Amino acid sequence: MKAWLCENPVGVEALQWRDLPSPPLPAGQLRVAIRAASLNFPDLLIVQNKYQMKPPLPFVPGTELAGVVTEVGEGVKGFAIGQRVAAFGGLGGFATEVCLPALLAMPLPDGFAFEDAAAFICTYGTSHHALMDRAALQPGETVLILGAAGGVGTAAIQIAKAAGARVIAAAGSDAKCEACKTLGADATINYTTQNLRDGLKTLTEGKGPDVIYDPVGGDLAELAFRSIAWRGRYLVIGFAQGSIPALPLNLALLKGASLVGVFWGEFAKREPGRNAKMLGELAAWYAGGKIKPVLDRVLPMEQLPQAFARMAAREVVGKVVLTNA
């Protein structure tokens, strides 16, 4: 097999595309020939040693993938050689094959393209869990999505629209705002050239958004929270801007608002039945054309450094996918 190996997490430049021996298959796991893998923001952080999880060295990065089962481990039921699957495995995706726990694998229905499947589980799982479970989003409510042109942001736009909500998409350029409109956003705010609070006040007639979906953090968080509607729900998804904001808790009191943490990965571990049901619903939405991953670029696996460079420059709209021939 070949894989991008991280022996020293000092940055993307230290990764090496290496020939490695195929690992033995543990009980309870599947061996998967990887057809496609997608880039998520934690993939960049983990090779920079900035992520909350510090895997033992050396490791192969890559959290999300899709491919074909080539071997079934002892004790595994419900999977067969030749079956198409997707998985959010945490590590090992930037390679030609991986061994992963069968519990992490999602069987793919016919017609689910590998490139789409590799960009599906994390972003759509996170966004559905956030909006539908944690925020209990209702038809007719208004959702503000920060970082709306990114992977989770584009998924959140589609899920919120499928749920009957009004979507205000906030992004960092006019081009990204236009991309959000093509996905169904009802209005957009370019927060590099427009005042976020003024824009929200105008677009909501002073009421504010009912739900705020925030994967960005940083200096946008307090501005957004100050604009939230009465009984609003502020969803803490992540901190793509790099800094964790310190929010004045009196804002929650004054607005009767809820500050809601969203950790889809832990939800999937603690509530696997509910997670499986959710992923099944999302797969049906995909089959019905309600949702579809936005792919910024599809590149050969050997071009992982170029993909990381595009992500680091914040040029990505949707997700970058790497494929094996």
From TrEMBL:
CDD domains: QOR1. It comes from Pelomonas dachongensis. PANTHER family: QUINONE OXIDOREDUCTASE-LIKE PROTEIN 2, SHORT-CHAIN DEHYDROGENASE/REDUCTASE. One of its GO terms (molecular function) is oxidoreductase activity. InterPro entries: ADH-like_C, ADH-like_N, ER, GroES-like_sf, NAD(P)-bd_dom_sf, Quin_OxRdtase/zeta-crystal_CS, Zn-ADH-like_protein. It holds the Pfam family ADH_zinc_N. This is NADPH:quinone oxidoreductase family protein. Keywords: Oxidoreductase. Its EC number is 1.-.-.-. SMART domains: PKS_ER.
